[in-house]
Specification:
Number of helices: 13
CATH class of the largest domain: Mainly Alpha
Largest sheet: 6 strands, mixed
CATH architecture of the largest domain: Alpha Horseshoe
Distance between the termini: 66 Å
Radius of gyration: 21 Å
Number of domains: 2
Number of strands: 6
């Protein structure tokens, strides 16, 4: 008999992150020459890429595959695994086209948060699945972040835990005004008071100091030093977090250390190829460093990964500067 699947241990209120399970995609063979195993491979790839973002608590492959054999609904699987979100999907070959359908469900409400269908001709099946996997990972990450951010906005500020305070900070950060930047700083600081090991909150704090320096909203040298210091704290608590290297890369650029900046940003996207902000930052630095080809390539890739990103205007701006 198969051992029961253990639910994920709930995290403490200070360190809790949104949790996610990607259930094995179902494979439908539409033609006799359909290659088996593609759905399992795509599922494994999506789980790995989401985990590399280090933004969510992602259930390991073994647990979801064991639970899938019980033939239960996504909502039931989510409850058994004690997660907030469940992603499901299917892969089929129909009339010479690979069709991948995906749904992301919020377990607590059984609400479909996001659903999409991807269609490609399988000229190179592995390239096709890699491209679809990129789109799925980026979409899931963006949708979960949006839901968590909106939920945090509805709560009283003094009731927020570290995760919620961080997402409240993101909401203000993406307003791009001096006042909103200061509010973002306050919420990131609130998150860190509850959880001093929250790498992304340090990266967010670094972003606010970077904005103050870049926009001349404060003393440039002092704010640049603080951007560097908080980026260093982010790296100290989690050197494998792409956001930590992203923050350090930006901070080094402010200090005029172009080569060091590029090394950190390359490390960010090496750790997580789906980290769109890393590719955007590379585009920005390349555009400022006389490397238009690299700037355009990184900008295009960042927009491909995150076509509705709050920093889309910056991605386009970096591309435009590369042409200047």
């Amino acid at each position: 008999p198969q051992a029961p699947v253990a639910p994920a241990e709930p995290e403490t209120s200070a360190t809790r992150r949104a949790s996610l399970a990607v259930m094995p995609f179902v494979e439908h063979a539409g033609t006799a020459d359909f290659r088996g195993g593609l759905a399992d491979g795509l599922t494994h790839d999506i789980i790995t890429r989401l985990a590399k973002l280090r933004d969510f608590f992602v259930i390991a492959r073994g647990s979801v595959f064991a639970l899938a054999e019980k033939d239960i609904s996504p909502e039931d699987a989510g409850r058994r695994l004690n997660v907030d979100y469940v992603a499901t999907g299917s892969v089929r070959n129909l009339s010479g086209r690979i069709i991948v359908a995906v749904e992301l469900v919020e377990v607590r409400t059984a609400r479909i948060v996001w659903a999409e269908t991807f269609e490609h001709r399988p000229d190179d099946i592995f390239v096709v699945l890699d491209d679809i996997g990129n789109s799925i990972v980026s979409s899931i990450a963006a949708e979960v972040t949006t839901v968590e951010r909106n939920r945090a906005m509805l709560k009283a500020p003094n009731s927020l835990n570290a995760w919620e305070a961080y997402h409240r900070g993101l909401w203000h950060m993406y307003r791009f005004t001096r006042t909103e930047n200061e509010l973002a700083h306050q919420f990131f600081d609130m998150a860190l008071k509850q959880d001093p090991t929250f790498a992304r909150a340090y990266a967010g704090l670094s972003f606010t100091h970077w904005q103050n320096a870049f926009q001349r909203w404060g003393d440039r040298d002092q704010e640049a030093a603080l951007a560097f210091e908080t980026a260093g704290q982010s790296l100290l608590v989690d050197e494998h977090n792409p956001a930590a290297h992203w923050a350090m890369g930006r901070a080094l650029w402010l200090r005029g250390e172009r080569d060091g900046s590029l090394l950190e940003l390359e490390r960010a996207v090496d750790l997580s190829p789906n980290f769109a902000l890393g590719h955007y930052a590379l585009s920005f630095v390349h555009s400022q460093s006389g490397d238009p080809r690299s700037a355009i390539g990184s900008s295009d890739h960042s927009r491909h990964l995150s076509p509705f990103d709050p920093l889309l205007f910056g991605m386009m701006g970096a591309r435009a500067m590369a042409h200047a």
